[in-house]
Every structure is written in C-alpha cells, then in structure tokens.
Amino acid sequence: MLKIKHVKVNxxxxxxxxxxVPQFGWVIESDDKNxxxxxxxxxxxxxxxxxxxxxxxxxxNSKESAHILLDNFKLESATKYYARVRIxxxxxxxxxxxEPAIFVSALIDSKEWEASFISAETEQDADLSxxxxxxxxxxxxxxxxxxxxxxxxxxxxxxxxxxQKVGEDELTPGWTSYHNHLLYQTYDITGLLKDGxxxxxxxxxxxxxxxxxxxxxxxxxxxxxxxxxxxLIIRYExxxxxxxxxxxxxxxxxxxxxxxxxxDGEIYDARLEQRGWNEAGFEAEExxxxxxxxFDKKVLTAQGASRVKMIDKLPAKKIFCTPEGDTCIDFxxxxxxxxxxxxxxxxxxxxxxxxxxxxxSKGNAYFDNLRAAKQTLIYYFKEDGEIExxxxxxxxxxxxxKITSWPGLPKLEEISAYSVHSYLEPTGSFHCSNPDxxxxxxxxxxxxxxxxxxxxxxxxxxxxxLGWTGDAxxxxxxxxxLVNTYEFFTKWLxxxxxxxxxxxxxxxxxxxxxxxxTMHDDWLLSQGTHSAAAWADVAVIMPWSMHLNFGDKEIIKxxxxxxxxxxxxxxxxxxxxxxxxxxxxxxxxxLDAEEGSYFGATPNDLTCTAYYAYSTGLFAKMAAxxxxxxxxxxxxxxxxxxxxxxxxxxxxxxxxxxxxTQTAHIIALYFDLVSEEFRQTTVESLIKxxxxxxxxxxxxxxxxxxxxxxxxxxGHTKEAYDLLLKEDFPSWLYQVKMGATTVWEHWxxxxxxxxxxxxxxxxxxxxxxxxxxxxxxxxxxxxDTDENHxxxxxxxxxxxxxxxxxxxxxxxxxxxxxxxTKWEVDKNVINLQVTIPxxxxxxxxxxxxEIFESDGLNFSQKGGISEAWAGSGDYTIKxxxx
Length: 882
Ligand code: BGC
Prior knowledge:
By secondary structure, this protein is of the alpha+beta class.
C-alpha cells in the first residue's frame, strides 16, 4: 500500500524550538517499485485533527519530497504546529494524508524576551565552581490551556517546576561562542503546572562558560558569574496569558554541589540539601537577593534538536581488586557520561570515585593520560539511609572507575554508567561476517557518542575536550552516515562562522578559547592560534559533507560567507598559489614523523596547498549549486590555478612526487591533483610505499581517512581491504585485537605488551581515525551519493566485494528513506539485495561481466563492470564474482 511513512521537519521527526519555518520532507512507503512522486499537498494546522488549517500548499506539481520551503508563511511564537502531507505518484495512485509531524516555535523575535539574566553569584565568585539555586513562586488561578518555558544560562542549568526537572536534556544550554550565539531550550510545561501556588527553580553550574577549560587550565573564558534566564508563557482557557520571567524578584542560594567542573568532576554535599527548595511553600527567608547580569539577548537562538541526554545505561560488569590493591569497576565499554549509584550509608559517610579509561600493563588503574583532569565524583551523606546520585554539570570519559571511598563494600548492582551525549537519531548500521570489523564499526560509533557532547570534540577524558576543527573535518562525513548530524553540525557551524577572525581565518578549536585574549600559551600564541590546513578547512568541508548527505542548500546559504572568507584568507596569504601559514599541524601524529614529534613527514607546503585547492574546488561547486554564478566561475578558475601549481610544484618531470610519503600520494589522488599522465605512476608509487611498510599505513590525520578510498578508486580494492583488515600494529584492527571499544588517538596508544604511548597525549576515545567507517559505508556497502543529485536523490550503489567476507549488510537512512545493500558470497556467485528509497533512483554498479539474475534491471557491460539504472524498491541480483 502506498503511504507516507513519516514527515520530517529540518530532517527531524520532531523539532521543539524553531524560530524560522523549517524545511519539510517525507518518506514514502510502498511495496511497489519505481515510485516517483507527481504532486504533493502540505498542510499545517494548530491541532492534530487538522480542523483548523493554517497553511495549505494546495496540489503542487513537484517531484520534490525533501527540502520543501514554504513561501509566505510566518510562525507565531510559542506555538505547536502539526504538518501533514499527501501525494500522488506518476502511476496515478495517491496516498491519504500522513500522520502529522510536530514542531514547536520558540520566541520569534528577541524583543519578546521580558526576562533578565539573574545570578546568585557575584564577580567575587569568579574562581569558585559551586552550583547555585534560584527560585520564584507564582500563582495560577485560572484554567491553563497551554504553557511553555524558554530557558538558558550562562553556565549550565537544570530547570524545575514544582519539584520536577523540566525536560530530559542535560548539560544545557551546551557550549557555543556564547557572546555571539547562546542557545535556549523550549519546553512544553502544561502538565507541570497546578492550580494555586507554583514554584520555578533553577540550579546553575560553572560548565564551559565559567569553568576551567583548555589545557592551560584557565577559567572564566566567557564571564565571571553564572546566570539564568527563563521565561514562562502561560496561556489560559479564557484567552489571557501570564509571563513569568527571571528577574530581581527571584531569590538565590548555594546548592549542595559545592564543586563542579567539566574536567575535574563534582562534589555533592548532601548535608547542604534544602528539601523542597524547588517546590511551593518552601521557606526561603534566608535566601539572597539575586543580581541582574548584562547579556545581549539578540544572540539568543532556539535549539531545536540534538540536545544532550542520558542515552545508554550500562550496568557495571565487574568489580575487582587491582594488583596495587585498588577496588575498581569495569563497565566493559569506554564511554562518555556519568556514573550513577545507589548506596547505603551513614551521616557524613563519603563516596569517592575516580574515573579512568584503561588499565596499565600490570592491570592497575591508569590515570596518567588524563593529564590534569581529575574526573572525580565525591558524595557526602546527609543522614543514615539510601541515596541515589549521578552528577549534573560535568562529564567523564571512562571505562573504569576506582572506588576510593565507599561505605562498606560496593555491590555490582548498585553502580551503573550512563552515556551522556547529544541525541542524534541513528541512521547507519553495518554488519558483516568478520566480528573484528563489526567491533571496529561499533568502536567508531562509540567514538562518536563519546565526542559529540554538544560540540564535536577531540577527546572526552583529559583536560582538553575541545572542538578541534581538524578532527571534526575528518570525521564529518562518517558521522553523517552513522547518525543524523543535521542539527548538531548546523549549530556548530554557526560557531565556526562566529569565531572566524575578521580576515576569515578559522580557529583551531571552536568554540574558540585559544584566542590571544584568553590564551596564555606562548608557544601557541607565537606560532598561530588559527588557520591550519585540514583543520580550518572544516568551514568548507563540513557543509560539503552535509550537502552530500542531506542535499540541503540552506546550509550552503547559511555558511556561504564563512566559506568564502576562509578561501579568501588562504588566497590572501598564498604566494604564487602556494599556501602555507604560521602553525600547521600537517599530517598530525603520522608514524613517519621524526622520533618524538607529532608532525608527520609530509611537507606543509604540500598539505596546505592540497587543501587550498580542495576547499576552493568544493566551494566553487557549492556556489554553483545555489546559483552564485560569478563566484562559481571565479573560484573554479582559482581552483584550476592552484591545482596546476600543485602539479608543477609537487611532481617531478618523471611523474614522481617530491614528497615520498603515503599521505602526499593519498591527498594528491583523492583531491584529484594528479595529471592524468601521472595517475598510474602515482598509484604505483603509493602501492610501493605501502609495500615498504609491509602493507601498513604510516599516515596521520590527513592521509588516513582517504587511504582506503584512493586504493579502491584506483583498482586496488584488495589492497584497501588488506589495509582495513590488518591486525598488527599499526592498524585499525590492532586496536580491536587489543580490546578497544572506541577508536584510539594513536595507532600504538597501547603497545602489545600493555605499555603506553607517552601519557601527554594518549586518548583512547578519539574519533579521528574512525573516519575509515566512511569507506565501510561508501565502498564495502557501496552506498554513495551522486554529487549531482545530493542527499541520495540519486544514489550510486557500488558494493565492493572483498576482504574474504562472506557477507556484508549495510543500511543508511537518507532523507528519502532507507538505502540498503546486503551481499553474500556463494563460491563464485554474489547474491546482492538492494533497497532504494521511493522517489529516488540509483545507478547500480557491479564488478562483474556476468549477471545471472537481474530482477528486471537492464545491465550494460563495459570494461568488466556491469551497470544498471534502477528505480525505487527492493531488488535481488545474482552475479558472477570477479
Ligand atoms: C587534539 C587533536 C587535535 C590536535 C591538534 C590534540 O591535542 O587531541 O585531536 O586535532 O591537538 O594539534
């Protein structure tokens, strides 16, 4: 039966907190093949029954079922909207109206903020990391129709109404370039209000805003005082409304969290609890007056989706005693989040837990790689009895925890861990006959979970956890296969643009706390705090990745000037089209670095110029896609000039590259900077460089993500699989064999004898090298987008069989629905099943010259490759393996 499976708003199934009309899209369901939409009708209503239609597109002749923008429709503030769709298809059938998707608007105009930022702290508290309470009572004496809360903080907050926490979000409002961009959250609070006296309460912690952030240990990057901003809109059945906003009439007090820091953990002293502080009727006479804090409300932006939540609950797996005599817990998974416990104790008893990632070679707790981060949770009992606790304004990166203090003996069932990260709908899945490869895929996903804590970070455990732009650049496409990154990345890209220098330079970390005014590292300051190739290029490559996976043009428009100014910055500093600038990370942590250095052997001129060309080329394509014709022409010309220069500068007349590193060859090939006459030589040289290392990579952040791609794109799929499946150091599966449950920062983070790479930079949860999962999706599963029809409107399905796998099953939920391939090897025959979403088409490409069963598809053959165009639906194809 033909139907609309679901409607999406801004690529989400639900969106609570928008200030501009979202884009619409829908997924079509049918058992038939070749479904192409002919018309659609989109309606909006203020209720589920649609008896009050406020927008009707009418019947629109259009094949578009994604990225639909509405003309002439304006949102009202604090309103719940329902959107439904029906369609007809080319063959004449039509659907009923879909189930509606819901979206909720926030405060459309910043002038609607009547509330003020209030603080229970003073500037003298600048060096304290305590949490504070704020409260206010109010009366409701009419019947409430609906009520909404809009809340945020300078710091981190939890908001309560009548004793109950509002919403399921954590670590709100997240981390942004606060003075340019501060998010607030929107909540439906209708069910939390009651007749008579009500109480609103907020607890605020230092968080990223005021706490200690950065490896230099400085605090107060954005301000010296935490503050809360909240506005409730209460609409009554009688048509009137009340606005309750944070203001000077609220009262403030210290909270039982006496210390809370992102890196160091939390100290909760239950003896300071004030029971009922967030409920009506609480005696708050001793509370203090609050002060108003100046902050520009124009920078407030509603957050729609991708909020941080407690997501997976992992029970403790094992409690054990280390050779050094420490009692430790193993959760069986390296994760980012919180330990939660239930414990029985007596008044003044103390619980102390220290979180860490790995055991050392002797099986003892290893804290050295946390550097200065304490990752410690401390709880003091108020009275005899049982308590339940998890922290609030911090997070830890850990698989293990040492129990330094506990009343009596801890029991396994009393302790569990929660992963805490931005909730992004899963979109990808992969399973094959090789359990180690499945584990690698799992590790990549958990690397994402652990490092998508409101901003894309490098690592979640040591005193860093920063939005390193290079790591996010490398991983952005992989991430967009694994989960729906749309809201997460669009939010972070606002900060990329906000924190760009006036000249267009892009900081090394976003939000940028390495700015000269807040940075005190002489070396970094003198070398340069912004604009490193492959890092800064995130400004262009991340929007490009999103364009490919979502087909979205709005993101290009939004980031356009940020992208353009980055390209212009490079052009400004290039000398005769060779770009290089101050501090460069180059092929960071590559194994061909000199002993003791993090900087790989590929020269900076080459890496920088390659990225200069690549980003310029992508920018020109994006300019063309949104009709910026002049820019498209100008930057295409620039791209050709840089590429020519690259070819002249980094290739010798005999076709060999000036830099004999794997990475030089990889980026030259992947970025298409090799002239056709030298392509074969370049590929052969790369193979030789690989053979020289006995089939191992020695690449770092720059070369690694593309290594398998350039091999499979150039007729060396076998070598690509061999590289992916290598099991000895250095390789992805070496880590898996060593028991990794996330991806490591270093190929040899832990040596075969269990000893460690230097403790100064050795994260066991760093997603960068996990970028290889993009190859798993695009090449093993063969699910790729066609650049000319992005968002998988037309996909290329080209699974590459290999790696001695018996089968591989890959799925990806595109904006149009699920794309899937499953191939099984039966001696010389490959059985392939594919699913193509409705209202999209595919080119199915196979490495074969003989198709046994084509399921009605028309394959043509050329050079050992069979190709067919396919409409939507499920197909089963049998073909001879090569
Ligand atoms: C981070 C990296 C980052 C690098 C740049 C490290 O400390 O963990 O992932 O990209 O610095 O130098």
